[in-house]
Amino acid sequence: MTSVLAPPPAGSGLKAVPGVGGVPYIGSTIAVMRNPIGTARKRYAEHGQVSWGWLLGQRTVTVHGPEGAEAVLVNRDKAFASGPAWSYYIGPFFNRGIMLLDFEEHLHHRRIMQQAFTRPRLRAYMDAMAPGIVKGVEAWRPGGGFTVYDHVKQLTLDLAADVFMGVELGDAERARVNGAFIDAVRAGTAYVRFPVPGLRWHRGLQARKVLEEFFYRHLPAKRRDGGDDLFAALCAAESDDGERFTDEDVVNHMIFALMAAHDTTTITLTSMAYHLAKFPEWQERLRDESLALGRAELDYADLDALTGMDMVMKESLRLIAPVPALPRKVVKDTSLLGFHIPAGTIVVVPMLSNHRMADWWPDPDAFDPGRFAPERREDKVHKYAWSPFGGGAHKCIGMYFAGMQVKSILHQVLLRYRWSVPGLYEMPLDTTSLPSPKDGLPVRLDRLEQSR
Ligand code: HEM
């Protein structure tokens, strides 16, 4: 049965948001978690671009399609706040991370943080991560049942110590910090959302303490000595108006940035590895491209030259958007594509399913990197048709960093290994949190005869 979210104000000319309430607090949560794309398609077919339902305990409006994504993310009326929406999931563990700030305050932090992502800084991060990538990839053990996701996750975590923290860690300290980081991330998807000793939420709070203690301890040396890592960059960052981060800001932003960077990059590489295993002709094309560069290590300038890799990355980000949905809380009554949205509502932009809408993408479920080739550019159909990095004020600040890291890693893998999956294999995705393979993506990994 269709029920409306709230009657629009008389004379406003706005429409009421239709939807299916279902069981209060639960609604379509289980269906969305199990099959986000199928559920979104059904809902779009039944109710159109804007509809509401219960999701994860909240009355939630889902706005399908790029027009809605643009309206929410560009946020001209300043009606959609990121902080209160994201805090529901990750607030206690990623307190005062930049994505949890809004409007003027967010802009103030963003202006300073931008200085840690300038081109010279990115070049320095790329140089800093290169030896760790070679060492990590070289240590992989070829054979059957090589789980790509687990290995890439470990590699990106190890790289974070070099390029994010820039701190020499002993094995025990590394394990302690990495463990705390993993617990903080996991806590966001806890079912029991209050601290019971031994359960995820409690472990997340403990982990936050470990991370804070770690960063505060190393902060004075970072401020004093500088360096080519993100931690040093945040300590030194200064906006054009001379604003700088306090110690507390640096610690909060470091903990958040680690989280924002880690799973997203891991998922992107896993998705690329999966598609390259399913479509070996693309794997060979990318390997030829990497070999043709004639250099063991990528330069910053090479990133644009790897055109096949760029298309595969874009297509993999389209098919599996690492951040599957972007939530916002409505802070004042507003309108969205002609619908009345009352203050207090949660609005979600479902990036994962938006990228698979047949109204915007020909053959939306097919892996076809050529759709991003200059002569096709199917993403040009709308500015927000392809938006794995979001848009507007909160658009991913690490977008170029991500491209740099993903391409640097894949280049080294292509030069050393060939990998495959059985013909009928389909990667089973766990979509209860950020999308990841339930089975870790087991492949057969073979060392190339002549690695370079
Ligand atoms: C392929 C990898 C990545 C993807 C798909 C991705 C995606 C996103 C998305 C969709 C948002 C916006 C969320 C929203 O508006 O609600 C975002 C924000 C953000 N990302 Fe990324 N991200 C990636 C990698 C990174 C990396 C490597 C870093 C850091 C080095 C990073 C740092 C951030 C930060 C700090 C924000 C918050 C920006 C703000 O609120 O102003 N991300 N990311």
UniProtKB/TrEMBL annotation:
One of its GO terms (biological process) is sterol metabolic process. Its cofactor is heme. Pfam families: p450 (PF00067). The keyword Heme applies. Heme binds at C396. Keywords: Heme, Iron, Metal-binding, Monooxygenase, Oxidoreductase. It comes from the Bacteria. GO terms for molecular function: heme binding; iron ion binding; monooxygenase activity; oxidoreductase activity, acting on paired donors, with incorporation or reduction of molecular oxygen. Belongs to the cytochrome P450 family. This is Cytochrome P450. It comes from Actinomadura soli.
